[in-house]
Amino acid sequence: MTGFQAVNSQPANSTQNAFAPARPQSRPSFVEHFGLGQANLALFILFACYGPSVSILGEFRLVELAVLLLMVIFYPVVTPYLKGRTGVFVSLFFYAAIAQYVSDVYNESDFTGTAKRVGTFIILGVLLLGLRWLVRDNPQRLRWLVLGYSASYGFILVTGLAAIELYYEAPWRLGLGFAVTVALCVFASWNRHGAFWGGIGLLIMALIHLAANGRALGLFTGLAGALSILAYMRGNLIPPKITVRQALLTFFGVAAFIASMVPVLYGVVALKVLPDEVQTKMEMQLDSPYGLLAAARPDTITALYAISKRPFAGYGSTGFDLDVFGMYIEIASSAYFGQDNYDALKSNAYENDDLQGIPSHSHLFGAWADAGFLASLCWWFTLALAATVFMRSIRWNNPLTPLYLLISLNTFWDILFSPGPHRMDIAIRIVIMLYATAHLATLDRFAKRQEAERQGQLAHG
Question: Which carries the bigger pLDDT value, residue 296 or residue 409?
């Protein structure tokens, strides 16, 4: 199996063979191979123009409004996609919005903060449904939509329409680098050896990210590349289902890999071979008395402390706790512990930090600290989805394997240790992973039918 059959516009569960291995057929034309149809190109153009926004009780991207408008116009054919996993995730984001509202009312949070947080969860759920409908179960639609969104990072760089001015100072680190890496995986997926060539490309991109001070992105891009090549060499066209043994081995294997990077980092820093900016940053973080993780993510450690104090009610979207704030300043300034002016820097941070809300630098821990455990359920389910896609993709020889591994690994990291949610970005990632699980589910049914037919033939033989 090197490709997918074309599918109609109905949900996956209404088309039993939507992802079934394609039968041998005549060589497709260039247009057919790359899916250069009007609908796919329209998706590319629409998402490539992501950037322009309007202010309506908060910032709305024009592309987001376009997706919402299309959903209203085609409402009867959109609602069937609320079934299955997509419906579960949409519901979870709506539940998070409700939990956020209840917590904000309880904590008497500022209305502006409530409107932004609640609105973000609702819009994210609606966007997820809209994107799932636009992609359907068509790999070409998925590819062109993702390519368009990746191209948008170049679009805003050229047109000057980025939401934050900081983007122009370091565009590669603030989204363009990841977008180029994703686009590389998509282009590789049009080749039947995409798992191999995509893996090679990811290894090269990992070196580029590391050179550009993208430590986490470089690490996970390199890991995705190596695993893609292994999947090409030793994987199956229909990967085996996840077992408890595989889950445990994967968990401890990834944990061991990450743990092994700590002494490697110490060694690399000691050799002083990193770029000056990276070298200085790493030396400061490694010298912190609270450890590398705390120094690198003081916001996340602070959020965990806040969660331990109020795990169910949260602090609200604009809550403040002097004890939590003090811990944040203590850890955040610890990277400067070895400098002569450490006390002055710490005092200055207390005086000038106008912190509103609990710092987290994390999708999951931010939602939990703000609105309690129920609000974090949507992110726990997203972590479970990413883990499922990752564990099956490492044994799946498929042209889209590099994309699945890259998205699942980086989503896992970003949900835990990156700020958000960035609505369109996380919605597209979830849709990619939902597409992967739908494909895998159909392959499992296909394998089950084949096994039943084989057993039947043996019984009658």
Answer: 409
